[in-house]
Amino acid sequence: MSSTPPAPQWFAVTVKPNHEKAAAQSLGCKGWEVFLPLYRARRRWSDRIKELDMPLFAGYVFCRFVRPEKARVLATPGVTSVVGFGNRPAAVPDVEIESVRTLVSSGLALSPWPFLRVGERVRIEAGPLAGVEGTLTQLKDAWRVVVNVELLQRSVAAEVERDVVCRVNPVVRGRDGQGRSQGAARSSHAGL
């Protein structure tokens, strides 16, 4: 009775800062299938503007291998770890890799985007509702921000564009028991 060898799976590999391209090339030279999704970004210097191909997931490269090859992957220059739980690498579902591949090959303008979950506290950053805070929800394909009136036990929902909301940091309680927001978590995209 012969057992079939395990099928290679996709794993997210962490790499040294700004070493995504070199690590991807080194992994590819060792014979593994590698995926480094890139997007086009404009960078301004004091004397010029230049368009660069930047990693869509800074600090990560996707590599397809079987779990027993983890040690060889880690021995690759620029690679620092394989994303996982404990000492066990966690595979990235093929459907997620294929979805990202489809986006990259579409020719559409792409950019990194903060990961927000339904139910997170958000602030609207632009438009007539700028400054309003609420809870992010989704109904079919529409994003909504729900604002509660605790005293009345009622809520109001407004449909918003996804690119005008940003995550709000949790409220920190001071010694006096008063809540203070630490501000909005920001990223480099449209106030996010």
> Which structural category fits the helices and strands?
mainly beta
Q: What's the assembly state of these chains? A: single chain
Largest sheet: 5 strands, antiparallel
Indicate the CATH class of the largest domain.
Alpha Beta
How many helices? The count is: 3
Total strand segments: 16
Distance between the termini: 56 Å
Uncertain parts: 179-192
> How many separate domains?
2
Write down the secondary-structure element order. Answer: EHEEEEHEEEEHEEEEEEE
User: What share of residues is helical?
Assistant: 10-25%
Percent of residues in β-strands: 35-45%
- Alpha carbon gyration radius: 21 Å
Can you tell me the CATH topology of the largest domain?
Alpha-Beta Plaits
**What does the overall shape look like?**
globular
> Which architecture of the largest domain per CATH?
2-Layer Sandwich
Mean pLDDT figure:
82
Fourth CATH level, the homologous superfamily of the largest domain: NusG, N-terminal domain
Please characterize this protein's 3D structure.
The chain has helices at 20-29, 70-74, 94-105, and strands at 9-15, 33-35, 38-44, 49-55, 60-65, 79-82, 84-85, 88-89, 91-92, 121-124, 133-139, 142-149, 154-160, 165-167, 171-173, 179-181. It has 192 residues and is mostly beta strands. The protein folds into two domains: 9-105, 2-Layer Sandwich (Alpha-Beta Plaits), CATH 3.30.70.940; 121-181. The strands form five sheets. Strands 1, 2, 5, 6 and 9 form a five-stranded antiparallel beta sheet that branches. β3 (38-44) and β4 form a beta hairpin. The longest helix has 12 residues, at 94-105.
